[in-house]
Amino acid sequence: MAIFINIALYGATIFVVIYAISRFYLRGRDLSAHDTPIPVTFDSPAPSTAANGVTDYLLERMAVPETLAETRNRFNEMGLSREFDCTFAPATADHSGLSVPGEWTIVEGADPEKRLLYIHGGAFMLGSPVSHRPIIANIAKRTGCAVFAPDYRLMPENKRKASIADSRAAYQWLLENGPHGPSQADKISVAGDSAGGNLTLCLVNWLRDGGHRMPDAVVALSPATDSTASGPSIRGNLKTDHMLRRLATPMLKVPSWLLMWIMWATNRIRPSSKLISPLHDDLGGLPPTLIHASTTEILYDDAKRYTNKAVSQGSPVKLQTWTHLCHVWQMFDEMLPEASHAFDEIAAFMREHGVTK
To answer: Are strands 87-95 and 98-106 parallel, antiparallel or unpaired?
Structure first.
């Protein structure tokens, strides 16, 4: 009998240790202090007909089983299946011992000395400069910047750190290289969506900490800021986030303490590390930053908490929110008037901070 009691006590002790590591080391600090409500910027009482059309499209896609390769191809079709009033040119960002392939997006009359690094989203497993041409072309057109989008290394073929290293190298290369060859950037900005928004905000923190030249402006669309997935909207908005529901549902079925260990094993980085969770970093001393999010997407609290913390630490971070829209709705620029509205707000923000005229 004593043997069974000892085994039970031993097992309970191991569980307590594992849980404690998950709660206090992997998850990090409680971030609920940054849940202060922020008024909705652009509210509508109900989803528009166009928004419902996008919802129907996403629900249809969710019902179709796909391999990772098939999903990647479908993403790229969003950029290949239409014409854009701009020029796309392949290029390679060579810096820090890395050669990062990518693509320039140039509109007529663009200023080659005003450059923008655009880091695409796709849950770190999908996406490319080609898939995100709908967003990149719109930003290039409205700002007149020369936009470079790196084709950073994706998971699972590569480790999570690869995308971080590629983003850093691409930014440093962009400071010294334009679409026509080596030259110093006059103005430089960084933007990204979802996973790319995460890489964008992590990049800015790294630049600040290392004493590097900071961007003149930063834009993050529906960014993932907290890799511990602790925001209430992760669960609260699951039913209304038709873009990320398929990805998030299996994850949320796992106990939170176990999820932290899974994420640690997957990324080889502690979930609350500032390397992959900019919300867990110091957010003082940041450049002017604009964040867009929908109040009905699961990453809404990632955006809200990041904004509240940054503002409390003295950084000029602004959150603009829309209602009844999907995650990164800017991708659906041909369907949603709100996408055009969002791009106009981005252009106004860039003008406000002297990045463009």
So the answer is: antiparallel
Q: Are 297 and 243 in contact (CB under 8 A)?
A: yes
Over residues 29-59, the pLDDT tens digits come to: 899 999 999 999 999 988 999 999 999 989 8
Determine the average pLDDT of the residues in 216-231.
Answer: 97
What is the rounded average pLDDT of the residues 296-320?
98
The residue with greater pLDDT, 357 or 194, is 194
User: In whole angstroms, what is the distance from residue 357 CA to residue 354 CA?
Assistant: 7
Q: Position 228: which residue type? A: T
Give the integer Cα–Cα distance in Å for 86 and 198: 27
Tell me if 79 sits within 8 A of 138, measured CB to CB.
no
- Dump pLDDT digits (tens) for 139-163: 999 999 999 999 999 999 999 999 9
For the annotated catalytic residues, the residue numbers are: 194, 297, 327
Q: Which of 22, 356, 33 is nearest to 189 (CA)?
A: 356
Q: Kind and range of the H or E element at 13?
A: helix 2-20
* Main-chain dihedrals φ then ψ at residue 300, nearest 5 degrees: -60, -45
pTM over 0.85: yes
Residue 255 φ then ψ, to 5°: -55, 140
Q: SS3 for 96?
A: coil
SS3 283: coil
- Which helix or strand (DSSP H or E) is residue 189 part of? strand 187-193
Count CA atoms closer than 13 A to 162's CA, side-chain side: 14
Q: Domain spanning 31-352: which superfamily? A: Alpha/Beta hydrolase fold, catalytic domain (3.40.50.1820)
